Amino acid sequence: MFYDTVDEESEREVTEQVFKIIIIGDSGVGKTCLAHRFATGKFPERTEATIGVDFWERKLQLNGTNIRLQIWDTAGQERFRKSMVVHYYRNVSAVIFMYDITREGSFRALSTWLQEYGHYGFDESDTGEVPKLMIGNKCDLIHERIVSSNQARKFADLHNMPMWEISTKNDEELETIESIFLTLSHKLVKSRTFMDRPPRYTTVDSSTEQSTRSRTKSGKFRTSQKKIKLKNDSGNHKKKNCCESS
Amino acid sequence: MARQEMLNSHYSYKKKVYVGKMKRQGNQNSGIMAQMMYYMSESRLRGKIRRITDALEADPVDVQTLKELTISADGLITVDLRCKVWTKLLNVNAFEFSRNQAKKKDNSELKQFHEHKYWRQVNLDVDRSHRRFPAEMRASRRRSLQEQLVRVIMRVLCQNQDLHYYQGYHDVAVTLLLVVGEDLATALLEQMSLHQLRDFMEGTMEKTTKMLAFLHPIIEEADPELDDFLIRSEVGQVFALSWLITWYGHVLKDFATIVRLYDFFLATHPLMPVYFGAALVIRRRTDVLSGECEMSFVHHLLSRVPDDLPDYVEELITTAHSLFCKYPPEKLAGAVERYLKESMAVAKHKQFLRELEDQRPDSVLRQRRKQLALYTNNELEVSPNFQSPNQTNTYTKLAVWTLTATVGTMALYVLSSAKRWI
Ligand SMILES: Nc1nc2c(ncn2[C@@H]2O[C@H](COP(=O)(O)OP(=O)(O)OP(=O)(O)O)[C@@H](O)[C@H]2O)c(=O)[nH]1
Ligand SMILES: [Mg+2]
User: Most CB contacts within 10 A, which of A100, B250, B268, B325?
Assistant: First the structure.
């Protein structure tokens, strides 16, 4: 089904690491679009309201390690997250907090989302280290921007999250999106390797924070490690696995 | 003629399916045999239509017989009968509400909509509802229907301030809209919201969660090995959430199958969608058991409804119904008991059933309304849906038609539901 059957044999031999990444944020910010974009490379012409949770998958190879990223796409409406989505906070490898740069409300809601995530007891303090990322979407709507980059960056710094502004719609930004996930994967692989050691070790170097940020032409922040990561991935780049969104 | 046209357009996307099925099955039972079966089925359905019509015309309406016929194979068969019977199954007086509708659609209503706390969410969801409309429908027509859809939903929400909108409610509303047209859909949706959907529309999803929690006890009773596997996988029951709260409207592709299920659920218990879900999971036991016993795998497998479900929907309905009879909600132990005490949908169900017994047939209601009109004079004009069949919108025309005509549907419906019974 969603496992790549062609690869099955080879994967038996080489170990494969599975990472579960959950995307949360208000309804309409573009969570489904982001998951779809990353899993298939395409912007979905049409999405539907997400009811409950759904996930997408993509395989990558990173420094010789096979990894499978499971991107869990969740429902944005408050009622769902309070009763259903929290169930899926468990055992996640990373959390993406997403907002829409054209909608103040979706940005303000991030504090609630963060609080809730912390409240349910899955914050760094007990699970070791769960990286949190913040993503502002719909940057293509330049004239409709309400949330300034500065404002968002301050908030992200306050909560110790790397932050990116993207447009899932804009084809040119596919690279940015890929690099975000690759950076994250890199960090996840690294921290899993150190898993058995005392927690101090695992928190020392996080690739995302260590990397110097540089501004690119498009004005977006990128991590300097991006190029290398993409190269590492090159052999496996086309091996995409997607699950249809329901 | 115009009537024929609009019905064609309504069904055209179903016909495609029908052609495909015909080809496939033509190979199996070719020639005379197929023709014989065709005529046998036709006469069976003709008989069923007659019995439904008789039950509708009895005074008081014979709701019990209507229910049995709605549940049994092929359900209500035609759009026309659906309009009439759904109305009776929900205890809506089609002749009363229509008089109240036309005052609306003005600015004050729009203003009220805009101020409503769910306005944005409703629009966001309706804007993303393309898939729920026939693929070949003109964009302009679809947009007009989407506008109607927003109105249908917002009216019910504005009328009932204690009802909370949930994502998926629009999937129910669109199903009703496509079958019965804007005004009747509003009335039906309101009744459903106060009854079958009531628990989903609370401020929180607590009751919905408890309702979903019935899934495991049902499977456990019917297929312990399978349930044990599901429990070990820790899959939970969120994969069935959209099934329950949209009555499968969100996940099924085939519209004819969706409305067939709506027949079934309208004629039975508010928990029936969960029993149907259990029947579906049980049917797929081999797929489940041969896969990995792991949460994401099982979640993924189960949350996608098989494409060929329309081929065996009648079997699933039969299974769900017998599961319900064998393991009724009251007999399922554990946490679900508490739900039964708290549920408004279930508590109201008994009273609702009693109310259904006392409905007048449409012939009487129509008569009554005419008499009323004599007193209140020009009020008859105010119901565009029932007065002017030349209105631009096909689906409202459909509503006019369904309330006035019963004959001549045969040829059409033979085409449209042939896929089921050849
Ligand atoms: N202009 C623009 N529109 C976008 C972008 N990303 C998403 N959208 C649009 O925003 C709408 C919502 O996107 P979804 O991905 O369905 O939103 P969601 O966060 O999954 O919403 P829920 O499932 O309701 O929680 C869709 O109509 C998308 O086409 C973007 O980068 N730019
Ligand atoms: Mg979504």
Answer: B250
- When pLDDT is averaged across residues A157-185 and rounded to a whole number, the result is 90
Give the pLDDT confidence score for residue B343 in this predicted structure: 60
Nearest CA to ligand 1 atom 24: A27
Q: Which amino acid is at B156?
A: V
- Compute the distance between CA of residue B124 and CA of residue A49 in angstroms, rounded to an integer: 8
DSSP structural state of residue B134: -
How far, in Å, CA of A211 to CA of A208, rounded?
Answer: 6
Question: How many beta-carbon pairs below 8 A join chains A and B?
Answer: 76
* Among the ranges given (A62-71, A115-124, B327-336, B395-404), the one the predictor scored with the smallest mean pLDDT: B395-404
Asked if A20 and B167 come within 8 Å (Cβ–Cβ), the reply is no
Q: Average pLDDT in the B342-363 region?
A: 70
**Own/partner pairs for A77-80, CB < 8 Å, 24+ apart?**
A77/A27, A77/A49, A77/B121, A77/B166, A77/B167, A79/B164, A79/B166, A79/B203, A79/B204, A79/B205, A80/A51, A80/A52, A80/B166, A80/B167, A80/B205
**Pocket residue to mutate for ligand 1, from A26, A32, A141, most atoms within 8 A of Cβ:** A32
The number of CA neighbours under 13 Å toward the Cβ of B130 is 11
Binned at pLDDT 50, 70 and 90, residue A209 comes out as very low
Cα separation, B126 vs B130, in Å, equals 8
Distance CA(A216)–CA(B398), nearest Å, equals 57
Residue A118 has a pLDDT of: 78
pLDDT at B31: 66
| Average pLDDT for chain B | 78
- Using CA of residue B120, residue B124, residue B127, residue B131, what is the dihedral sign? negative
| Packing angle of the helix pair B394-404, B182-194 (nearest 10 deg) | 80
- Cβ contacts of B249 within 8 Å, gap of 6 or more: B132, B171, B172, B174, B175, B258
Helix (H, G, I), strand (E, B) or coil at A55: strand
Task: Please say if the pLDDT value at position B92 is more than 80.
Answer: yes
Closest in A1, A27, A53 to B167, CB measured: A27
For residue A170, the model assigns a pLDDT of: 92
Write out the DSSP string of B253-294. --HHHHHHHHHHHHTS-TTHHHHHHHHHHHHTHHHHHTS--S
CA of A33 to the centre of ligand 1 (A): 6
Predicted local distance difference test score (pLDDT) of residue B339: 55
| Residues paired with residue A72 on neighbouring β-strands, in sequence order | A22, A55
ipTM metric: 0.74
The residue among A58, A93, A71 whose CA lies nearest residue A236 is A58
- The shortest C-alpha distance from B77 to chain A (Å) reads 28
Both structure tokens of B64: 């019990």
